[in-house]
Amino acid sequence: MGEPILKAADVPTGLPANKQEAVVKSELDVDGVTWNVTCVSMGNPHCVTFGLLVDELNLAEIGPKFEHHVMFPARTNTEFVQVCSPSHLKMRVWERGAGATLACGTGACATVVAAVLEGRAGRKCTVDLPGGPLEIEWREENNHIYMTGPAEVVFYGSVAL
Ligand SMILES: N[C@H](CCC[C@H](N)C(=O)O)C(=O)O
C-alpha cells in the first residue's frame, strides 16, 4: 500500500501539527463536540478517531460532518475505531464521496498507522470491517504498509451496450 504521508499540509488538514509534522490525537470540534483525531494520507485523506463502541455510532449523521469539516480542505475519509486489543481493531468508515461502505483498504491502513502513532496498538493488527477482517502491517524497516485479505467473488453481472 506504500508509505503513509503524515505532514499536515500534505494530508491535507488545517489542524496544526503537534508530533513533528503530523497531527496526532488532536482536538477537532465537530458541531460543539470535541473529538480526538489523527490525520493520515495514504494518497487520499483519512481522519481516524478512537475510543468508541462503533456499533452504537450513528455514522450517517456524524460522517458527513467530518467529511465536509473546514479543517479538511480536500474533504476526508473518516475511520471510527474501537480498540479490542493492541493487535485487534474494529472499524467503521465514512468514505469521502461514497458514505458508509463495507470496507476501505486505505482506511484500514490509515487506522493502524494512527493506532501506532497514538500508542494504542502494535504495527501488525487485524482490522475488522463490516465486510470482514484485513491483516495490516506497517513495517518499521521500510515504512511501507502491507495489507493481506481474501479476494472473493461478490457478484456476476452483465450490461447490454
Ligand atoms: N475504497 C478505497 C478508498 C476510496 C477512498 C475514497 N473515498 C477517497 O475519498 O479517496 C479503498 O478501499 O482504499
UniProtKB/TrEMBL annotation:
GO:BP terms for this protein? lysine biosynthetic process via diaminopimelate
Give the SUPFAM superfamilies listed for this entry.
Diaminopimelate epimerase-like
* One Pfam family this sequence matches: DAP_epimerase
Question: Which GO molecular function annotations are given, in alphabetical order?
Answer: diaminopimelate epimerase activity
Q: What's in the keyword line of the UniProt record?
A: Amino-acid biosynthesis, Isomerase, Lysine biosynthesis
Protein family: Belongs to the diaminopimelate epimerase family.
Would you tell me the protein name for this molecule?
Diaminopimelate epimerase
Provide the species name: Linum tenue
